[in-house]
Structure formats: structure tokens, C-alpha cells
Specification:
Shape: elongated
Number of strands: 3
Structural class: mainly alpha
Order of helices and strands: HHHHHHHEEEHHHHHH
Distance between the termini: 83 Å
Length: 322
């Protein structure tokens, strides 16, 4: 390695050079420190690391029973760090260049996507006139038809929902960003369910209040956390018979991408919908869902049209064969 800096200093320099959120910086530091500690314990000289060392490290994580997704998270930081070392000309060759993923990168998410009929069933669970039911109905409606993550829903304030030139927009604080820089145009149907929920909320509402809040006696009026949203969605999934670890709150995000495809949206429209910075990330996402190509349309509007048509179709009476 063409530098005399200690490895911990190199890790600090790497993180300082990356345009990352504080949470991601903390994760990278933790995972890289774990790798360094393992290298020391197993007498692997970090400065002379070779691909075989990384394969052994990967096998070590597997033998410890670490999940495939967590292993990939640990290896991601190693890959990026090694790439940075090459870019800084500290090493000549990237030893992580051929390091494979642990998860199956194709089809990983396809079983997690819900059909439009299952989305309607989820919403029907909360067809009750109460603040909690109206909130949960609006949560599912928003997440299934816009693809927002739990953390992005948590961060939404009332003032982030705006009508601009006759169109409703959400100002979204995207995952990994430091501010509310994302914009999603949504049909009025999404806003109607949210406003209906607000009618059941006590007190006066203002722009700085969260869109979705707790209604339990101990924490009434406080912002819903991502964990709380996940539990609400998971509990509802169980009520319609989807009691599997393949179905979680994140399934609604996969559902939105799948519905956008079925509604005829183009890749770039789905990319904007999901908030992916890189189009290749969207292409991978679509391939993982079993989607090879998409056609045309505006994602959220076409999802809405598709959902409405399916709902009307499902309500048609079945004619007797007699």
C-alpha cells in the first residue's frame, strides 16, 4: 500500500470524502472496523489484502449465522473502501472487484409484492370510522400507490402536502438525503384519504405537525416512527392471511413499482417514483421484481387509474349461469 497512514486514519479519510448521511457514515465506520478487527485476529495483513482474504471474511460472516442482507451490507462498505483506495492510488488493484453478492440479486423481491386485490383487502381491514382506522387506511393507500418508505412517511409534515397549479405534490425527505428535496406529484385520491383521516384528529392542525400521529393515550399526537408504521402494516398483512417474513411494510414499496409497471410506466418514471438517484438501481429493482421492460406513462397517475379500474371490476355482480 503506497501510504504510511494507519488503517483507521484511512477509513476516516474515506468517510470524510464520501457525500453520505450521518447514519450511513456511522454504518460504514462500524462495518469497516469490524473487518479490520477480523483481519488482525486472523493475521491477515490489511495492506496486502487479496481477493482470497475477502472470500474468507465473507465465509466467516456466513458461519456466524449473519443474514444474507446483512453480509451484503458489510461487504458494500468494503467494496467502496477498496475502490476508494484504488482511486487514491494507495493500491494498484481492487481486491473486492470480483467479490460476489450473498443474496440472489434476481427475483429477491418478487414474492414480496402484493396484487392489487390484496392491496384492496388490506385497506378493507381499516374501513371503520375511527381515528386509528382512518390513519391506517390512509397509510396503506399512500405507501402502496406511491412507493414511499416508512422513514419517508414518518418525516412527512402537513405542510409538505401542497396544491401547486391544481396538482397535489408531496415534498419528501428521501432516505440518505439531508433535506426534503424530493417531489412526488400524486392524484387527489391520495390526498382525500389523508384529509379524511385528519377530520378525526383532535385539535387544530398546522403545517409543522406530522401527517400521521399516534393515538394511544400515552403518546397521543406524537409522530409515528418507522418501527410503528412497520408494525401497523405487518399486523394488517397478517389479518388478510399474509403471515410470512416475505411480506412486510416494505412490500408496499415493491407493490407500487409493480403496479407502475402494469399501468405502463417507463423506467425513468418509476425511478422518479422510487427516488432512485441512479437509473441502474431502478433497473436492478425491476429485474428483481421479475420486470424486464416497461412502456409508458406517469407512474402515480397510472397506478391510480389501474387501481380504480380494478376496484370497479371487482364490484361488478357475478351473473348466474342458470
Amino acid at each position: 500500500m503506497k501510504t504510511d497512514k494507519p488503517i483507521m486514519q484511512l477509513i476516516d479519510d474515506f468517510i470524510a470524502d464520501m457525500d453520505l448521511s450521518p447514519g450511513t457514515c456511522k454504518l460504514y465506520k462500524k462495518t469497516l472496523h469490524y473487518w479490520v478487527n477480523w483481519s488482525v485476529e486472523h493475521q491477515r495483513e490489511f495492506r496486502d489484502v487479496v481477493p482470497a482474504d475477502l472470500v474468507t471474511y465473507k465465509r466467516h460472516l456466513k458461519d456466524k449465522g449473519v443474514s444474507a442482507s446483512t453480509i451484503d451490507s458489510y461487504l458494500t462498505s468494503v467494496r467502496k473502501f477498496c475502490r476508494w483506495l484504488v482511486g487514491m492510488e494507495y493500491i494498484a488493484k481492487n481486491p473486492a472487484e470480483q467479490l460476489g453478492w450473498t443474496r440472489d440479486r434476481h427475483g429477491t423481491f418478487i414474492k414480496q409484492s402484493l396484487s392489487i386485490e390484496q392491496v384492496f383487502k388490506l385497506m378493507e381491514v381499516h374501513k371503520i370510522n375511527s381515528a386509528v382506522s382512518k390513519r391506517n387506511f390512509a397509510l396503506i393507500d399512500l405507501m402502496a400507490f406511491t412507493g414511499l418508505r416508512c422513514i419517508e412517511v414518518t418525516r412527512l409534515n402537513i405542510g409538505d402536502i401542497k396544491n401547486v397549479s391544481g396538482r397535489w405534490i408531496l415534498q419528501v425527505w428521501r432516505k440518505g438525503h439531508n433535506e426534503k428535496s424530493g417531489i412526488i406529484v400524486v392524484p387527489e385520491d391520495r390526498i382525500k384519504t389523508i384529509k379524511e383521516y385528519w377530520n378525526y384528529r383532535p385539535g387544530d392542525l398546522n403545517d409543522n405537525q406530522p401527517v400521521f400521529v399516534n393515538h394511544s393515550p400515552r403518546s397521543s399526537g406524537t409522530r409515528l416512527t418507522p418501527v410503528c408504521i412497520s408494525r401497523i402494516i405487518k399486523a394488517t398483512l397478517r389479518k388478510i392471511g399474509l403471515n410470512s417474513n416475505k411480506y412486510t411494510a416494505h412490500s408496499l414499496r415493491h407493490t407500487a413499482a409493480t403496479l407502475a409497471y402494469k399501468a405502463g410506466s417507463e423506467n425513468w418514471e418509476i425511478q422518479l417514483l422510487l427516488g432512485h438517484a441512479n437509473p441502474r438501481q431502478t433497473e436492478h429493482y425491476l429485474r428483481a421484481l421479475g420486470i424486464q421492460s416497461v412502456d409508458q406513462g406517469r407512474a402515480t397517475e397510472k397506478i391510480n387509474d389501474y387501481a380504480l379500474k380494478q376496484r370497479i371490476h371487482n364490484k361488478k355482480p357475478i351473473k348466474s349461469k342458470e
